[in-house]
Recover the amino acids of this structure.
């Protein structure tokens, strides 16, 4: 299987509407986590934290008139996709059939769906807006983006938790290897939703100001994968090479949550082996760490095993941007972009460990 290049990267986050602003905010130690208003909480329960995008404009990538008809998730991924294509110097025109889009999500469509159900339940079925319905499905952001940008190649949305952006990379790699496309926009998008947040909150899974922990986030991250031939024909300088990916699974019942450092370590080791990279050559690691104590502890032990107690520089941006599949896509975009800004960066490992037992890792190399 080929090892495609990454030629563009972009991110829309609660710390900035582009990757440069986000990178600078993260480096300064800024955090997007803030208390969610406590209305609806049981008496005495402390409000929990979330990383929400509170101020966002779709312009200049998307006009306000058009954006008003779109859901938040579609707005996020469209803006990120346009920025990604621009950073890669890639014009879809003339390449429509050879360009694809692969998006992952854990919550896209949640906002329109809950609002549509609210209208039907508290007003009447006749009062429900027909404009909401097309955006209640999870593939709306990817499909809307493809329609507007003229992308006519493979169009797939994957629905999962943490590892789904890495699975989008894997699927994109497979499509490029099979010559189904020359370039693939791959990433993930999620929107914060109060109903979902309250469910996590009532289960006492979320962190608070006095007890930091798991916090939901939102946003979008994308990278452009291209074959070596496409890069050569376009005469562009790639950001990174997508060199390795592996997963290790631990099947469990839906009622259980699993933290297994041995299986996590196996995923890391297999990803490094797939990339032909020795652990000592890894320059940085984007951790899966998100404030869930038992998962974070298991990842720490897995890292100690793989790197013999001397792990490379580690970044835990979920502590600043919250948790959701989109945050992993943002990690991928930041990792690819880092080669442009750090001359000492040679290999970056990205961990995405789901509490349901799906552990995945990817390795990006300097091209």
């Amino acid at each position: 299987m080929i090892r495609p290049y990454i030629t563009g990267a972009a991110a829309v986050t609660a710390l900035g509407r582009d990757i440069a602003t986000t990178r600078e905010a993260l480096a300064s130690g800024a955090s997007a986590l803030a208390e969610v208003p406590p209305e609806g909480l049981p008496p005495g329960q402390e409000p929990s934290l979330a990383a929400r995008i509170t101020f966002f404009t779709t312009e200049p990538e998307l006009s306000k008139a058009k954006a008003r008809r779109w859901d938040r998730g579609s707005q996020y991924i469209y803006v990120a996709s346009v920025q990604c294509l621009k950073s890669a110097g890639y014009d879809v025109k003339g390449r429509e059939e050879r360009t694809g889009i692969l998006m992952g999500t854990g919550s896209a469509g949640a906002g329109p769906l809950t609002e549509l159900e609210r209208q039907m339940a508290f007003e009447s079925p006749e009062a429900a807006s027909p404009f909401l319905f097309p955006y209640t499905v999870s593939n709306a952001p990817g499909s809307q983006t493809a329609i507007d940008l003229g992308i006519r190649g493979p169009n797939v949305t994957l629905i999962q938790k943490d590892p789904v952006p890495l699975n989008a990379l894997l699927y994109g790699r497979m499509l490029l290897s099979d010559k189904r496309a020359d370039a693939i926009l791959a990433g993930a998008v999620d929107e914060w939703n109060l109903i979902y947040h309250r469910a996590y909150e009532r289960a006492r899974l979320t962190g608070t100001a006095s007890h930091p922990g798991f916090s939901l986030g939102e946003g979008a991250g994308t990278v452009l994968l291209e074959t070596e031939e496409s890069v050569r024909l376009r005469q562009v300088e790639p950001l990174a090479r997508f060199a390795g990916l592996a997963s290790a699974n631990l099947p469990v019942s839906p009622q259980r949550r699993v933290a297994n450092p041995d299986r996590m370590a196996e995923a890391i080791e297999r990803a490094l082996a797939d990339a032909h990279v020795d652990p000592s050559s890894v320059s940085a690691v984007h951790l899966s760490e998100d404030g869930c104590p038992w998962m974070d502890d298991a990842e720490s032990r897995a890292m100690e095993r793989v790197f013999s107690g001397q792990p490379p520089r580690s970044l835990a941006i979920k502590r600043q941007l919250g948790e959701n599949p989109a945050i992993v896509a943002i990690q991928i975009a930041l990792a690819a972009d880092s080669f442009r800004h750090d001359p000492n960066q040679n290999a970056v490992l990205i961990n995405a460990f789901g509490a349901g037992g799906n552990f995945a890792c990817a390795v990006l190399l300097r091209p």
